[in-house]
């Protein structure tokens, strides 16, 4: 029988006990250290890519119409005539103090307000971060609940008609691009067929998404649809494997009720692989918001990134990319640690 | 693993040269494989033949904006009054070509990095895998956007950006599978005869990774299509005025209620393509890895050490 948890080898029996008495604490420390190192390297890449590599950021911002004088002024402002190392150091110390620089676009990218004064990146991106965080959290929770429920349901009806329909249907949905799903939902619920939900999710600068949940229905539904199939497949596969295992057969032979067999013996062993796939889904959501927020004009960091790229607003691009990378790294650590803590078998790091 | 082709399992080391063909044929004979291949071929046919049979130029203004379908424009007009049918027929081949090129680049780079890391071990392994970890910290579309923000939306850059963004994932997967293979006796035996390390990797290890590679390529191809079409949709992909399916969906969605064909036709073709490729990949995974592993591989979108031909 194939081992469900990907990449996991049953090393418990073969290895002596870990050197430390707290394998989980040890793992957390090692992973966090690695994560921080990764983030430092990510910041170097982001910085190098946007500021040092191709010619000159000032030219990228001003474009073909730049005069030598205006180029020079912006170069001074961005500190481009200093050495790359000095520039990087300046940027990183700023970031560590919570100063992410000044947006290069008057009034900021997108919906930051109409003022011509230059705004700090953090004050512009901050509200977007809250909006995106809420969207990702809501979509992640809905998707997890739906995926786990459907996966269990299909596993218990294995190879029946309803299982096949669900499996094949979700296999197809999994392959659809987010923007195709989003457009189809708009077509179905916000324009052509029914007209019951808002097709765009525009929020004013002072509006909070949790006060306007009706605006979030379609974006959340889109993100849910594209992530549910993965949770579904993993929960289904892990539950089926557990139900066929010898320990479940043993529990049945002891005469336990089917309900108790499922809840106490089968499901705990399906938890770790499920957490792994939920973690993957959250990572996917971090990239998925870029396109989905654009589809629904939802003012989050995904849309902010798209706007910043069109405006060549480099400090904003740097900040948003760094935030997303930090989320990735943190999510990976979190998933590993929770999966480890949740699994009876998986007490050792790789 | 009940559904592995017996011919495959028996002669895994010897039928190398045609192993992928065996797997492919067996996969296409299953119902999923047949449907997946049919959908894929249909869209490929539209994209490839389309430019030769399009009734109008894709940039010619032949009707009113968002005009309903008529005898002259069978699928109506788009946002500027151009022929939706012609633009749909023309708008696929570039997307397909770029997706295939990006996938090939990502698989090649990832395979070289992953197999080298697994076989060379030690410092090369550590260096390669740390680099991989760093690049895995970017969502793929964000990495592509980062490059586009610097150099601008050029076709070659999109291919390179998407290919590069696949490489770390492929490298990680292939390292895990190659580690398993490089421990086997026949590799040790060849090493004793003094064959160069490059050749051991290329001629002994890589051929045994063909089935996981096929599955991984299918997964990556689906992703390439999604990312490149998505980038075109948000305006940073293939540039106007030429037609492409991603861009068409975005520029015509304001006229959804007037002429929905301008959105539905390109959206349906992208959907059929990604669903087709993914269903075919699923069928290949089921044949090559067995149904149970296939479920996990498709759920996590990654093959692992457990998926090397045993």
Description:
The complex is a heterodimer of chains A (350) and B (310). Helix content of chain A is 68%, strand content 0%. Chain A has 13 helices and no strands. Chain B has a domain at 93-242: MetI-like fold, CATH 1.10.3720.10. Chain B is built from 14 helices and no strands. The N and C termini of chain B lie close together (11 Å). Chains A and B meet through α1, α6, α7, α8 and α11 of A and α6, α7, α11, α12 and α13 of B.
Question: What's the SSE blueprint?
Answer:
The complex is a heterodimer of chains A (350) and B (310).
Chain A: H1 23-52, H2 57-62, H3 68-78, H4 84-96, H5 121-156, H6 161-175, H7 178-189, H8 213-243, H9 246-253, H10 258-266, H11 271-296, H12 301-311, H13 314-342
Chain B: H1 6-10, H2 16-29, H3 31-53, H4 84-90, H5 93-120, H6 122-135, H7 140-151, H8 155-182, H9 185-192, H10 197-205, H11 210-233, H12 245-252, H13 261-289, H14 291-300
Helix pairs in contact in B: 2-13, 3-4, 3-13, 5-6, 5-8, 5-11, 6-8, 7-8, 8-11, 9-10, 11-12, 11-13, 12-13, 13-14
């Amino acid at each position: 029988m194939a081992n469900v948890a990907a990449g996991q080898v049953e090393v418990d029996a073969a290895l002596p006990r870990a050197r430390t008495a707290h394998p989980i604490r040890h793992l957390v420390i090692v992973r966090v250290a690695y994560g921080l190192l990764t983030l430092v390297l990510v910041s170097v890449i982001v910085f190098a890519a946007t500021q040092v590599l191709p010619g000159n950021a000032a030219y990228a911002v001003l474009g073909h119409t730049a005069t030598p004088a205006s180029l020079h002024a912006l170069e001074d402002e961005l500190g481009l005539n200093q050495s790359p190392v000095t520039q990087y150091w300046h940027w990183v110390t700023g970031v560590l103090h919570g100063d992410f620089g000044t947006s290069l676009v008057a009034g900021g990218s997108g919906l930051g307000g109409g003022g011509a004064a230059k705004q700090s990146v953090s004050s512009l991106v901050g509200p977007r971060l809250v909006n995106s965080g809420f969207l990702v959290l809501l979509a992640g929770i809905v998707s997890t609940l739906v995926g786990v429920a459907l996966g269990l349901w299909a596993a218990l009806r294995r190879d029946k008609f309803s299982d096949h329909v669900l499996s094949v249907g979700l296999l197809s949905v999994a392959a659809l691009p987010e923007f195709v799903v989003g457009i189809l939902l708009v077509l179905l619920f916000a324009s052509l067929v029914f007209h019951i939900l808002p097709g765009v999710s525009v929020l004013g600068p002072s509006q909070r998404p949790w006060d306007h949940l009706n605006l979030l229905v379609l974006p959340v539904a889109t993100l849910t649809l594209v992530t549910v199939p993965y949770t579904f497949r993993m929960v289904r596969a892990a539950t089926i494997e557990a139900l066929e295992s010898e320990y479940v057969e043993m529990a049945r032979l002891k005469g336990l009720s089917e309900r108790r067999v499922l809840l106490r013996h089968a499901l705990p062993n399906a938890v770790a692989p499920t957490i792994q796939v939920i973690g993957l889904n959250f990572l996917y959501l971090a990239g998925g918001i870029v396109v989905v927020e654009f589809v629904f004009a939802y003012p989050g960091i995904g849309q902010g990134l798209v706007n910043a790229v069109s405006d060549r607003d480099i400090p904003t691009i740097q900040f948003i990319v760094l935030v997303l990378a930090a989320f990735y790294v943190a999510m990976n650590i979190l998933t590993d640690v929770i999966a480890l803590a949740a699994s009876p078998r998986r007490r050792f790091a790789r | 693993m009940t559904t592995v082709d017996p011919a495959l399992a028996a002669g895994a080391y010897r039928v190398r040269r045609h192993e992928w063909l065996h797997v492919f044929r067996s996969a296409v004979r299953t119902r999923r494989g047949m449907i997946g291949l049919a959908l894929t071929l249909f869209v490929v046919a539209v994209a490839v033949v389309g430019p030769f049979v399009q009734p109008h130029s894709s940039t010619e203004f032949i009707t009113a904006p968002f005009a309903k379908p008529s005898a002259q424009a069978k699928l109506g007009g788009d946002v500027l009054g151009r022929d939706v049918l012609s633009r749909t027929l023309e708008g696929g081949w570039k997307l397909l070509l770029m997706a295939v090129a990006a996938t090939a680049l990502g698989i090649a780079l990832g395979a070289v990095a992953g197999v080298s890391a697994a076989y060379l071990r030690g410092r090369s392994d550590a260096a390669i895998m740390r680099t991989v970890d760093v690049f895995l910290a970017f969502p793929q579309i964000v990495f592509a956007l980062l490059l586009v923000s610097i150099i601008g939306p050029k076709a070659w850059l999109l291919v390179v950006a998407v290919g590069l963004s696949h490489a770390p994932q492929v490298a990680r997967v292939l390292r895990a599978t190659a580690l398993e293979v490089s421990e086997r006796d026949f590799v040790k035996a060849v090493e004793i005869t003094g064959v160069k390390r490059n050749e051991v990797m290329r001629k002994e290890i890589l051929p045994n990774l063909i089935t996981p590679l096929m599955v991984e390529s299918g997964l990556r191809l689906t992703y390439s299509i999604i990312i490149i079409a998505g980038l075109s949709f948000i305006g940073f992909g293939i540039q106007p005025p030429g037609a492409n399916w991603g861009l068409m969906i975005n520029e015509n969605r304001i006229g959804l209620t007037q002429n929905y064909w301008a959105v539905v036709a390109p959206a349906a073709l992208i959907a059929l393509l990604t669903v087709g490729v993914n269903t075919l990949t699923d069928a290949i995974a089921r044949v090559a890895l067995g149904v149970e592993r296939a479920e996990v591989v498709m759920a996590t979108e990654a093959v692992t050490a457990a998926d090397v031909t045993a």
